[in-house]
Write a structure and sequence with these properties.
The chain has 57 residues and is mainly β. It is 9% helix and 21% strand. The relative contact order is 0.27. The radius of gyration is 11 Å and the shape is globular. A hairpin with a 6-residue loop joins strand 1 and strand 2. The protein has one domain.
């Protein structure tokens, strides 16, 4: 069984996910939780899943 941990930092910029507007969602490829801050979401910065390397907008 794969242990899934809650994302606590933005995978795009590395800041803590404490401000309003952040998102946590499962990676479309492996299901690991990916976290993104509001600024990176708003700017459509790319992200890379730390579990499998999937890259998304």
């Amino acid at each position: 069984m794969v242990r899934k941990e809650k994302a606590t930092i933005c995978v795009s910029c590395g800041i803590n996910l404490i401000e309003r507007g952040y998102a946590r969602f499962p990676c479309p490829q492996c299901g690991n939780e990916v976290g993104r801050c509001a600024a990176c979401r708003h700017q459509s910065n790319s992200y890379k899943c730390p579990g499998c390397g999937f890259e998304g907008p």
